[in-house]
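Chapter summary example.
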Amino acid sequence: MKTNDLSSDIAPAKLLPKDFNKKKFNISYAVTTDPYLQEIQNLSRSQCMGKKVWQPISQIKGWMVSAETATFMKWGGLGMIATELPEAFNKCFADKGEKLTVVTPIYIGNTGKKKAEIKDNVYLGAEHKSVNLTKIKTIDIPFVGDKQALVKHKVDVYTGSFNDTDYIFLSSDRFFNIDPHPENPTAQDGCYIMNKHGINEVERFAFFSKAVYVLIKTIFEDKIPELSAPNIIIANDWHSGALSGLLKYLTVAQTRSKEMSSELARKLKTLPVVHIAHHLGYQGWDYDNTAKILNSLYGHNSTLVLKNAKSIKNSNPRATNTLIVHDCYNQSSCNFHLADRVVTVSQNYLEEVSKELEFGLDFRDILKIRKDHRNFFGIVNGYDKKLISPNSTKIDTVNKYFGNTNFKTYDENKLENKLHNKQEFIKLISKIATDKDYKQKVIPLIGTYKFEDISKAIKDISKTPIVCATSRLVEQKGYDIAAQAILNISKRHLSTKREHPIFILGGAGDINYFEMLTKLKDKVIALNPKVAERIFVFHGYKDEFAYAIQLASDFYMMPCRFEPCGLTQMEAMAKGALPVAMSTGGLVDTIEDGVDGFRTDVFFSNNRRVYGPNLIAQRLKTNENAYTETLDKALNTFYQTPNLITAMQKNAMHKDFSWDVENGSVYKYHNLLSTGHL
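The structure predicted for these 678 residues follows.
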């Protein structure tokens, strides 16, 4: 990869000094009569308070800018929205000449879990899908190199099409390589890896934002006739969080220094940006590289921009500047302050992040101002129902994989096969428990703990509830809350003559949570081995195994500490596994308590009531107590009024979160992009 040193053309003195943020410093915003500096200083206030009038867009030609896509590189829900929202949008509005194009990196390399490569102009992505590439142009991206000087890095621009959706791919061997560095943290993988060049996730996606900006600028300069300029940008989470600053700060600074014409600057800074915020705990922090990244983004204007990037006045002394939080570069911050609209992935999560410090973190006050001025919205993530319902293609694949199973399809109008699948799963889990060779064949990478053959212990499967949790083993998912609730219920019902529940708990993630679940089983063994034999705990993930578990389960446990939207509850509901959930985030918006699932009456964060009546909160006091009560309620409903459970399962399976259903999320996004409001 060729590079050109720019240090000769750009005065080094105007770059921010290396490690400036590691010394005691304070930014004071001087009163100025310079109209360019005034514009930069006042921009956050203007944007957060919605003072700029939204210009209606009659025909949307938008870009979805995303580091992840479910099609080519997925690590979470933001990859799903980057694929499914554009595909649904293009399906619904193509006849009007409207479309969304996805802009994303081409990742090359092999992490051990994710592998991607280009062969003969075909991109073979990390999700086992491929696309034919057409190379459009090579552009130069000024970015600080190893010697703290601005260097022109070459980025190849490609186009391709998948599922009737156009893609623009950006390729850089240095920044988008995913071969791991020897010092890569064990928890980092996929596009979040520290790669062999020492590029971490924050630097990678700051470069991605800069490359997208340069691409837009080059198109507006009429230098890439093969590509049309977008008339709106959707910035998908923190990875593209620098875009608003580049479009709205850098353009002003470069107009001031006569590096850019006022007409080009006008086109760029008036291009509307809609920022989608997923989980606010992920913001793109980088303390060590703060100066390097700001210099990379703003070049020799970095000092000028930083010293005038004034945040709207708020009560948080850590967030007085839009580019850094306290003394650390923060990739989300710029878009939270400067985007034309901010969206999060459920209405209830909007309420949480704009009210509770534990959820909104340093941006709570900013988001409260945006909410009050009606430029912050909550839109629930959609989910393509045909992909998650118990369809024959997927079930045939599961049966073929396990070899000796006979899982059957079912829907809300014919639930008999749900009962059949419970019986099949008992056979499967018992075989895995007793046949080591079979276990090694079907789930070799999944660790199990004291699995037991319960095929003969189940007297009546129709009266035996199966309860599962198969999400990631991380603090967010509340497995410790689930374990305490199971222990509490086991103690309460030791002497009961009813069929004890079967619990299947586990997933990939933190080994400490798996060990905590093994201790749960041991504690229940000490109470009653017959109850404990029905508790199955595992560590690791295999799609076919998780799918089989959900096919058989009556309930899906979600004792989450936070859940911005949640897709797992949608998957479970589509299979008739009723979610038993904490009343937080999108779980409130997607689960109707007592109708298609169960939710806690109250929810606490840091021992404070966030959701629910105060009197009930005073009685329950903790999330563990609230969740125990709700899980107990779900199980008692199963035992005492099974017809109600059947009705709830039908309701859950009938529910459709697809993007394009009537009044679905794709139409809300269309309204927002067109008019600036829902």
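To summarize the output: Residues 201-220 form the longest helix (20 residues).
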